[in-house]
Amino acid sequence: MELLVKIPSDIFGYGAAILTTIAFLPQLFKTFKSKSAEDVSLIMLILFITGLALWIIYGFETHSIPILIANSLTLIFNLSILILKIVYTSNSTK
Amino acid sequence: MELLVKIPSDIFGYGAAILTTIAFLPQLFKTFKSKSAEDVSLIMLILFITGLALWIIYGFETHSIPILIANSLTLIFNLSILILKIVYTSNSTK
Questions:
Q1: Contacting residues of B for A52, CB less than 8 Å apart
Q2: What's the domain range around B69?
Q3: pLDDT digits over A46-71, tens only?
Q4: Contacting residues of B for A55, CB less than 8 Å apart
């Protein structure tokens, strides 16, 4: 008797892509609300955004729509966090 | 005459995986050095770590070593940031 139900690996893939994409929305809202991103590493944002741009090229080259969509959204969220960080840092030093 | 050199898509994939993994090291060092992660969203870390765990299951199910390695490292870095955040938040409210 087989009691274990085999979950298709795609379910994990889509769940993973959705979670690692929407994860940056709370960070974006928090940064916007607190008007501070001092503790958020600038180098992290630059490396991460560059990596996401490469994922988008990879998704484009390999015709992978899920990779294209997930990484484009993640890039938009992180670019917004980076812009807010630069704006708030520049305001705080005025 | 073909002047454009075709770069293999794998190069972008590996570059993307390396950058989006090592990106969290500067955040980890920054958090450890400043002893503060107040501006880093707790909900982001929880969603991101859960998503990374699903990527690891997906990499395991699809026998993808690059997905397994990249996401395991990213999970270790982000779990460390989460632990530091909890420790520093708990210390600051004492």
A1: 16, 20
A2: 39-94
A3: 999 999 999 999 999 999 998 899 99
A4: 12-13, 16, 20
For B32, the closest chain A residue by CA position comes to: A39
Residues 6+ apart with CB under 8 A from B64: B58
Whether B78 maps to a domain, the answer reads yes
On whether residue A27 sits in a domain, the answer given is no
For the segment B14-30, what is each residue's pLDDT rounded down to a tens digit? 999 999 999 999 999 99
Whether A47 is in a domain gets the answer yes
Q: What whole-number distance in Å separates Cα of residue B14 and Cα of residue B47?
A: 24
Q: What is the spatial distance between Cα A22 and Cα A42, in angstroms, rounded to a whole number?
A: 20
| Record: contact A58-B24, CB cut-off 8 A | no
Residue A78, in any domain of the structure: yes
- DSSP assignment string, B52-72: HHHHHHHHHHTT-HHHHHHHH
- Indicate the number of domains in chain A: 1
Q: Tokens in use for B11?
A: 């190069």
pTM of the shown model: 0.90
Identify which of B13, B29, B44 has the shortest CB distance to residue A27. Answer: B44
pLDDT at B37: 94
Count of other CB atoms within 10 angstroms of residue B57: 18
Q: What ipTM does this complex have? A: 0.88
